[in-house]
Amino acid sequence: MKERKIISIEDRIPKLKQVRRRKANRRLIFYLSVFFILIAVIVYLQSPLSYVKYIHVTGQNLLSEDEVISSSNLTTETNIWSIKLDEIQVALEEDPLITEAKVIRKFPSTVFINVTENKHVGYVQSDNEYQLLLENGETVFRDNYPFGKAPLIVGFSEDGLKSLAGELSELPETILHLVSEIHYQEQSDINNKVFMYMTDGFTVNTSLRNIANQMKAYPSIVSQLEDQTQGTIHLGVDAYFEPYKD
C-alpha cells in the first residue's frame, strides 16, 4: 500500500498566492481594456472620424446630385451614428419630383441615396414660364431644363392635365418622344378631344381618355402609309387617315 505524500499548508500558500495574483491581474487587465475601449469610442464619436465622408446619389434625372443631398440634410459634418434613415427618406419624398427614396448607411463613413423620380411627361406654359408636367399630374418649375424630351401641352384644365398625365405615363418612351404638342380641342363637338402634333410631320386626332391605348398603334399605322404622304391620323372606334389638303 502506497503512502500518500502529505503537503503542508506552508508549502501550498505560495502557490495559492500566485494563482490569486494571476486572477487579479487578468481582472485588472480586463477592466482597463473596457475602460480604454469606452474612452476610444467616446473620442471617436466626438471626432471627425465619425462624420459622413461620402454621399453617393443614384436614380436622379430631373434633379441634380447636389439638390438630392441638400434635401436629405446630410453634410460632411453629420455624425454617421446619428443618422435617422426613415426621417431622411420622408424628407426626400416631400419633393414632388421624388416618388420614392431609399437611404442606406455603410460604415465607417458612407451613405447611399437612391431616388425614383416621377416621370416627366410634358411641359405646360404658366405665367410666361414653362413648368414640367409629372406623371402624377403635378406641375413644377425647373430652370434651364431642355425642351424636346416631352410634348408642349396647351389648353387643358387642371383636371384635364391630371387625366392627360396618367395617359402619357403609360406611353412607351419611343412614342412619347414623337409627340411635339398636344392641344385640347375646346371647339370640338365631342368632349375630351385632343389634337397632337408629331415630330415626323403627322397629326393625330384622338380622345383624351384613350391616348395610351390608341397611340401604341401609331408606329404601325405610319409604317403602312405611302412614303412622302402626310396628314391627320384619326384614332377612335374606327382608325382612318386623312391626307393634308394642298
Write out key terms for the chains shown:
single chain, 246 residues, Ubiquitin-like (UB roll), Rossmann fold, 2 domains, 3-stranded mixed beta sheet
What is the topological layout?
Blueprint: H1 9-46, E1 54-58, H2 65-72, H3 85-93, E2 98-106, E3 110-117, E4 120-126, E5 129-134, E6 139-141, E7 152-154, H4 158-169, H5 173-176, E8 179-184, E9 193-198, E10 203-207, H6 211-215, H7 218-223, E11 231-234, E12 240-243
Compute the number of helices: 7
CATH fold descriptor of the largest domain: Rossmann fold
What is the beta-strand fraction? 25-35%
Low-confidence stretches: none
Helix content: 25-40%
Largest sheet: 9 strands, mixed
Gross CATH architecture of the largest domain: 3-Layer(aba) Sandwich
Q: Give the ordered list of helices and strands.
A: HEHHEEEEEEHHEEEHHEE
The backbone outline, from C-alpha atoms, is: rod-shaped
Question: How many β-strands, per DSSP?
Answer: 12
Number of domains: 2
The average pLDDT is 85
What does the model show?
By secondary structure, the chain is an alpha/beta fold. Helix content is 33%, strand content 27%. A hairpin with a 4-residue loop joins strand 9 (193-198) and strand 10. The longest helix is centred in the first third of the chain and has 38 residues, at 9-46. It has 2 domains: 49-117, Roll (Ubiquitin-like (UB roll)), CATH 3.10.20.310; 120-243, 3-Layer(aba) Sandwich (Rossmann fold). The strands form 2 sheets. The chain has a 9-stranded mixed sheet, with helices on one face. It has a 3-stranded mixed sheet with strand order 1-3-2, with helices on one face. It starts with 8 loop residues before the first helix and ends with a strand.
